Automatic annotation (TrEMBL):
UniProt family annotation: Belongs to the RAD52 family.
Gene Ontology MF term list: zinc ion binding
Keyword terms, alphabetized: DNA damage, DNA recombination, DNA repair, Metal-binding, Zinc, Zinc-finger
Gene source species: Leptolinea tardivitalis
Pfam families, A to Z: Rad52_Rad22
Region of interest: Disordered: 283-307, 332-369
Limits of the SWIM-type domain: 53-89
Any one GO biological process: double-strand break repair via homologous recombination
Protein name: SWIM-type domain-containing protein
Composition bias, Low complexity: 294-307
Coiled-coil segments: none
């Protein structure tokens, strides 16, 4: 009986510490996945001096990486877990209150006055980014980066702004072209070297960069709020298909960059290096969760260090971060059962696929360097 009373008192103390820290602004709680958070406490919230603690929920089991939980948990939940619980409860209560207010009004909140609609939009924009929306793609080199797909950004904008927004291009696209040396991996020198043709000349290929400037405008009862930015996309070759894909890619990039200025809902936090390391890694892995907190911590650590897919041609050249080239590479490997020997072989294969119409689905229009 006395032991039970001591546990209750110890738990109450930690709950009160968490509440005091939140009220004093000394807790920074960030959701990084549906059931995972980071908690930074103390002066580190203001000055970034302390590393955050990782808090997770698996079924009914809470876990934290702090020393207090490692020694007293799970019988006693540490102040970091309590901070997450209090923050989540406050957010859910706020969302519930807004829903009740909307139901009490004769008209939906979004159809009310400018002030009411603006309040709803601001509330939506302040919500944490749902990490299940985040995808990852291979970047030039060995790493991968998180991103939001174009259709996802458009869908979210329709939800937040109620279709009362527009995207307009400012001026004509700018297209820059130049000749780039073709490099190949030299096994003997352990580095990439320029390819030399039969005449002893360095082989080159034409590459280009498309710039597009645009702006996003949101209509709030006749008052327009705009954000402008620059989109860009690299392409290889002088074919119409390559340029067409680059124009579309730069327009999508411009759209996403314009919306990014509106904050969390449009992926602005993905430019934070710490968040970018893990964002999107949990996608599609929810079915593998366990109810064992210790196993969850180990599993989380192993997933964080999982290397991205590496695509490499037979000559040692890595496939770069452009989605069309990655799709073409995967398509070749699936149908041929092996990796293409070089980028030139992949281009030739794609040209053959288009000319003979052997596929039900069109192959990617070009391979982008």
């Amino acid at each position: 009986m006395q032991e039970s009373q001591e546990l209750k008192q110890a738990q109450a103390e930690r709950t009160e510490r968490a509440r005091s820290a939140i009220l004093a602004g000394k807790f920074l709680v960030t959701r990084i996945a549906p059931q995972q958070w980071t908690v930074q406490n103390g002066d580190g919230v203001r000055f970034g001096r302390t590393l955050p603690y990782a808090v997770s929920l698996n079924g009914d089991y809470w876990a934290c990486t702090c020393m207090d939980y490692q020694q007293r948990g799970p019988q006693i939940l540490c102040k970091h877990i309590e901070g997450v619980r209090l923050s989540e409860t406050a957010q859910n209560q706020s969302y519930s209150d807004i829903n009740k207010e909307m139901q009490m009004n004769e008209q939906p909140l979004s159809d009310g006055s400018l002030g009411d609609r603006l309040s709803r939009i601001l509330w939506e924009l302040r919500q944490p980014l749902d990490m299940s929306r985040v995808k990852r793609r291979q970047a030039p080199g060995m790493g991968s980066v998180p991103y939001l797909e174009g259709y996802d950004v458009i869908d979210r904008a329709n939800t937040v702004f109620g279709f009362a927004w527009s995207f307009d291009l400012i001026g004509e696209p700018v297209i820059v072209r130049w000749q780039k040396k073709v490099l190949a991996w030299n096994q003997q020198e352990k580095r990439k070297v320029p390819l030399i043709d039969a005449n002893g000349n360095v082989q080159t290929e034409e590459v280009g960069l498309v710039y597009i400037t645009g702006k996003v405008s949101v209509d709030l009862d006749g008052k327009f709020y705009s954000h402008a930015d620059l989109g860009r996309c690299i392409f290889t070759g002088d074919t119409p298909e390559a340029l067409d894909m680059a124009l579309a890619g730069s327009a999508t990039d411009c759209l996403k960059r314009c919306f990014r200025q509106m904050g969390e809902q449009f992926g602005n936090s993905l430019y934070d290096k710490e968040i970018a390391q893990n964002a999107g890694l949990e996608q599609g892995r929810e079915n593998g969760q366990t109810n064992n907190p210790a196993a969850s911590t180990t599993s989380q650590a192993s997933r964080t260090t999982t290397a991205p897919i590496v695509r490499k041609y037979g000559d040692g050249v890595l496939v770069n971060g452009n989605v069309p080239e990655q799709e073409a590479y995967d398509q070749f490997k699936t149908k041929m059962g092996k990796s293409p020997a070089s980028k030139d072989e992949l281009r030739s294969w794609l040209a053959g696929q288009r000319s003979t119409h052997m596929e039900h689905q069109p192959a990617p229009a070009s391979v982008v360097a």
